Amino acid sequence: MVDLTEKRILLSPGRAGLLEHKERRMSVQDKLGILADAAKYDVACTSSGVDRKNGKSGMGNASACGICHSFAGDGRCISLLKILLSNDCVFDCKYCINRVSNDVPRATFTPEEICELMMGFYRRNYIEGLFLSSGVVKNPDYTMELICQTLHLLRDIHHFYGYIHVKAIPGADPVLIERAGYYADRMSCNLELPTAGSLTKLAPQKSRKKILTPMRQIQNGIVSNKNEMVIYKHTPRFVPAGQSTQMIIGATPETDYEIIQVSESLYDRFSLKRVFYSAYISINQDADLPALPQGPPMLREHRLYQADWLLRFYGFKAAELLDDQRPNFNTLLDPKCDWAVRHLETFPVEINRADYYTLLRVPGIGVNSAQRICKARKFSNLDFNDLKKIGVVLKRALYFITCSGRMMYPIRWNEDYITRNLVDVGERLPAEVRAGQMTYKQLSLFDDFHVTAPSGPADGLMALTGQL
User: Fold this and answer.
1) Cα–Cα distance, 33 to 466 (Å, whole number)
2) Residue 231 has what pLDDT?
3) Euclidean distance between CA atoms 433 and 438, whole angstroms
């Protein structure tokens, strides 16, 4: 077991710029400043699909509609207390700010300190839950044991029943992974990079096998737990919100086709809830890393998220969206439009006769509008005015549909003409992409709060956390 009496920063001997082989105390505020900032590169922090009740004496809840989400312009969730347990990592992954060879301030929370922060912020309604990740301190077992003790304190001692998402540490003892699974709502184990070759090149201390092993354990545990709950009503729930993973996009030369093939395989083999895509941000200097003079590939990340949605909810397969001859998405079009203009032989679709799954493949028609069309046409034939009221985005759909055999107006039936018109229509991109200004600052718990007379951001941070 880990000694919880240790309340000092864990410093790695020999690191330039850090204190020389000395133990010193570091305040919780200082640690929070370091470890909240270090967590901003991890994007897998959504909370959904769980209904954990707090009984009569607990605090918080994680009902499916009870988590208050806020998102940055690039889609990152900011409603949780999002921190690392430690950034004092023993690994030397070339793309990571917390790599062992980097000269950065290091800190490690104790489980009690995380609980102090978590409960204090929750009582003040600053956050709705916890997202806890970590670098690998000493070894995977030591790190996972600290995470488990943190969850034990929150659930069993503080009786917190809100949403908790934690990272499974690859290489940790399966017993520790299982213990964390009965406390957490969601767990994730980052794939890091799309292919094993890229992982070997940029993170040689990690292996695909070690990453997939806990993912398989969590999947098997979820299935087994569901079967037990059918028999025994009071069986504790194991990772009730499922598991997810994350891939860094743009650090290695994989095509969009290769990436969505990997995602499709993960959904099929491991029953993941989400695969998250994180645009690579150049924070380290290394010959094996791309320079990216134009900045992180945020638009490419956006297109991959859209394609991921098509895989999960629209019945598309990776091989339909792309192939070896056309391995990357046209960034000027969303993937559904890109697929449609390359498969004009399947269009136009007659709105009043097409089945539900065919309607889903029409640009501008989503899940809700397809369901409404199927219901409404039972009573009368639909026209373009009806479709607009239903919620169909006609500025995209009009090139691919007919109502009672007629198109909205005559068009030239070729890929170039339709593509030009769709590009002119534009779409709602993330704010950073629309403005052409890529910003990566993670929104802080303190951005919108007014603290009396702070002299700077650090003083504002202390003014808030000092009350806990």
Assistant:
1) 13
2) 86
3) 7
- The Cα 444–Cα 420 span in angstroms is 40
Region 287-291 average pLDDT: 92
* CA terminus-to-terminus distance, the chain: 28
Q: Is the pTM of this model over 0.85?
A: no
Q: Give CA–CA dist 254/262, Å, rounded.
A: 11
Question: pLDDT tens, 136-175?
Answer: 999 999 999 999 999 999 999 999 988 899 999 999 999 9
With residue 385 as reference, give the H or E element that holds it: helix 384-390
Query: pLDDT tens-digit profile of 384-428?
Result: 999 999 999 999 999 999 999 999 999 899 999 999 999 877 666
Tokens 């941000």 — which residue?
281
Q: How far is Cα of residue 224 from the mean position of the Cα atoms in its chain?
A: 25
State the CB neighbour count (10 A cutoff) for residue 403.
18
Is residue 405 classed exposed, middle or buried when 0-12, 13-18 and 19+ CB atoms within 10 A define those classes? exposed
Q: For residues 73 and 298, what is the distance between their CA atoms, to the nearest angstrom?
A: 11
**How many Cβ atoms are within 10 Å of 18's Cβ, its own excluded?**
16
Q: Distance between CA atoms of 101 and 131, rounded to whole angstroms? A: 26
